[in-house]
């Protein structure tokens, strides 16, 4: 683009940068993959920690394996890409919880009668220090969808549209869930403040 095409200098190169990075990643370019990974890695780890994933870094690896395996199917801009990645992250979390529940049921149904006890790992301890156990306890009063809306909006810094895409809901329902979640959190914090 020349100055004649954009006399005020208002053209945003970030959209074209994202599109070219995405195209390069689709062609198998390693540095382009790395750029996409680095753009969301920390936010996906934070989301996984806040959702109490047993292995947040492992979850991020699983998420990006799925992302890169399905990259040719993705169509959209950077914001839509971010929402798509967080939808995959949420699905990986749900799949992992289901697998853990099945393993516990298998152990409970075995002749050994032993139930595995999960000890907190270093990731869990770090998550508690970063996000604060008090904050996580407050979030536990929310429904899973409400908690995900708050985490995606605050921790992952996603727009309403991206959160709606991640959770496969309308923007209106995301606004409503966010409002109800914040009202519930306000009541919970007030209740705890009164009782102390």
Characterization of this structure:
- With 196 residues, the protein is mostly helical.
- Helix 8 packs across helix 9.
- The longest helix has 32 residues.
List keywords for this structure.
196 residues; mainly alpha; 73% helix
Helix and strand topology:
Blueprint lengths: L12 H14 L3 H21 L5 H14 L8 H32 L12 H10 L1 H7 L4 H12 L4 H8 L3 H25 L1
Taking all Cα atoms into account, the compactness measure Rg is 20 Å
Estimate percent helicity. over 70%
Parts with pLDDT < 50 across at least 5 consecutive residues:
1-11, 112-132
Query: What is the first-to-last residue Cα distance?
Result: 62 Å
What composes the largest sheet?
none
Which sequence of SSEs, written as H and E, runs from N to C? HHHHHHHHH
How many extended strands?
0
Structural class: mainly alpha
Can you describe this structure in just a few lines?
With 196 residues, the chain is mainly alpha-helical. Helices cover 73% and strands 0% of the residues. Residues 1-11 and 112-132 have low confidence and may be disordered.
